[in-house]
Design goal:
Blueprint lengths: L10 E5 L2 H14 L6 E6 L9 E3 L3 H9 L3 H8 L2 E3 L1 E5 L7 E5 L12 H8 L13 H7 L21 E5 H13 L4 E4 L2 E6 L6 E6 L4 E3 L2
Parallel strand pairs: 1-2, 2-8
Antiparallel strand pairs: 3-7, 4-7, 5-6, 9-10, 10-11
Helix pairs in contact: 1-6
């Protein structure tokens, strides 16, 4: 470090498993593992994870594509269903609701955002609710879904955006298999101490309940 040159990272330690931990491990396994760099994940079966359904937002599809996971395989492994938006029941008042659709709503006009145009004319009964201008919202209201069409000028299906509702524990299991197949090492144990550098304060290692010290560098 005295030369001013950055030292390469050789040891990456991920603390905790579950969906978040194994998503991190899967990405690290896909892009960061090399013969000179090791990725390890620490989790404890004694702590476990919450095995409940989990809602996602559209970037989840992009994440799976980045890893190279085919959507049909992902859907089958996690028992996922498609999700077109988020419905907030009791929004503002007990008898109100707000549906937040994924994807674009309307189209801008001469540089003016669509929602600004809608706000200006919303008192006109013929304008309708904002969600009426969202393909995802209309599909959800009518219990319909189809994969988005390839981008085509003027195609009404191209802007359809979606996410998933899935079993989080099954997704973590799928990602663990994916990560371990790409060199990520899983360490079973419960962390009881965190060691820091006396000068910088940065974490240098964690100590497990059986005395093992796992270093990152």
């Amino acid at each position: 470090m005295e030369t001013g040159e950055a030292q390469p990272i050789r040891e990456i330690v991920i603390v905790g498993g579950g969906t978040a931990g194994w998503m991190t491990a899967a990405a690290a396994g896909r892009f960061l593992t090399t013969p000179q760099r090791r990725v390890r994940l620490i989790e404890s079966e004694a702590i476990g994870t919450v095995g409940v359904g989990e809602g996602t937002i559209p970037p989840m599809s992009e994440f799976n594509q980045m890893l190279g996971i085919a959507e049909p395989d992902f859907m089958a492994a996690t028992k996922a269903t498609y999700k077109l938006g988020i419905d907030f029941v009791g929004w503002g008042a007990k008898d109100e609701r707000y549906f937040h659709p994924f994807g674009h709503i309307g189209s801008s006009l001469d540089g003016v955002a669509f929602h600004q145009l809608w706000l200006k004319h919303r008192k006109n009964p013929s304008i309708g609710p904002l969600a009426a201008y969202s393909l995802s919202a209309l599909a959800a209201f009518n219990n319909r879904f189809a994969p988005p069409a390839p981008p085509e000028p003027g195609s009404p299906v191209s802007p359809l955006s979606y996410a998933f509702h899935l079993d989080a524990s099954l997704y973590a299991t799928m990602l663990r298999e994916f990560a371990e197949a790409r060199g990520v090492e899983r360490i079973e144990g419960r962390i009881v101490e965190v060691l820091r550098d006396g000068d910088s304060g940065q974490v240098t290692a964690v100590v497990l309940d059986d005395g093992r010290k796992v270093e990152g560098q």
